Amino acid sequence: MPHVTEANLTDLAIERWKNIPDPRLRRIMTSLIKHLHGFVREVEITEAEWATAIDWLTRTGKMCTEKRQEFILASDVLGVSMLVDSINHRLATGATPTTVTGPFHVHDSPELEQGANMADGAPGIPCFVSGFVRGLDGKPIKGAVLDVWQTDGDGLYEAQRDTDGPWLRAIYRSGADGAYVIRTVAPVGYTIPMDGTIGELMQRTKISHMRPAHIHFLVEAPGYHRIITHIFQAGDQYIDTDVVFGVKEPLIVNFEKKPSGRMPSGETSKAPFYDVKYDFTLQPGA
Ligand SMILES: [Fe+2]
Question: pTM for this structure?
Answer without folding.
Answer: 0.91
